[in-house]
């Protein structure tokens, strides 16, 4: 009986291990990857999603370490549940107040980044690799746990980057750092980056980390990490390929503009490398938490679009039924009389605002971390719907309204085109495209908003072939 139970337990453990994708070494692990999550940035949910993708991709890459989220007390219980369910250890901590928050150039999103200091209090581990959630791992760099008390990579030739660093937990260092925060030691950006570069100010003079051949040996002291552990995505864009021949390419980081972080659907194809993050998401947590919102939106757009087209077909004022027959012209004009507000400028302003909203609204309701292909498709469908409704509502010319939409779509294709030879030629082609398309944009703008006789813009295409003069007098009588 006993061996049977043992085998059962073993099987259970192995399946557990398989599910988690981790190695068979028994718990507790000696090392950990950790990241922080806190509330108070405008983009908390995106960071939570990014943390899940980050850790699940490390599990998939078969890391042999615990995965820890250092979570501030304010994060929602459902997030903690989700993380725990996915095999992540959640350590809830008290936020470390940021005394630099009052600095004039302080960025709000850094409010509690000093929580990274809690990494030093994880004394149950021998080494901790502290991560920002904007790392995309190509392999699990577990050899980093052999590094010394503190190791980080220099993305910038003189300033090391705190998006990934190795630390040796120690209560002594932890309390020393808390004191330094309290004393407000110099800090350039008011974040963890400024604090740690100030604390480990001589890292540049330290030797480069080479993992000892004996996998169990651990180094002491401080080390610089080879750049292959923190490949700056910005370097990719110059040649649209990697040139990091020193060391095994392990992690790509995206430190540039916050609004173009790789998880935002709109950042691809503007910054094509972001697709790597979505590949990771697709193979780990997937998109089912967002996809239903997208489906509802698509259904809504298709419904509105078909209703609008249906009404347009049935309407006596519809473009198709518009012949130059005088009765219909009269009807059309009386319709125009009913609808038109007094001053053309007011009307034009309203049209302009609605046209702008036709882009902003569908853009802003797409789930932010959806796959870019789905995101753009949804946005294009949404804006098309709104534009078609506006055209019908105000009897606008189709061409000047639709040309900007089509040219925007063209720009996406230019950016998407996968055969650009380098980042520079890509941006030159984009600039040329923008240059060539600007006259037609100007034409559209002129047609819609500054055509010499105010009426022209809201007269349907066909009716312009008939006497323009009548309409003008008609409208001038009106106002
Ligand atoms: C560090 O401090 C914590 C609590 O403050 C304690 O539980 C832990 O044992 C300490 N670690 C060491 C190595 O002393």
From TrEMBL:
Keyword hit for tRNA-binding: no
Top-rank taxon, per record: Eukaryota
Keywords for this protein: Membrane, Signal, Transmembrane, Transmembrane helix
SUPFAM superfamilies given in the database record: Nucleotide-diphospho-sugar transferases (SSF53448)
First and last residue of the signal peptide: 1-19
Transmembrane segments: 291-311, 350-370, 376-394, 401-419, 425-445
Protein's name according to its UniProt entry: Uncharacterized protein
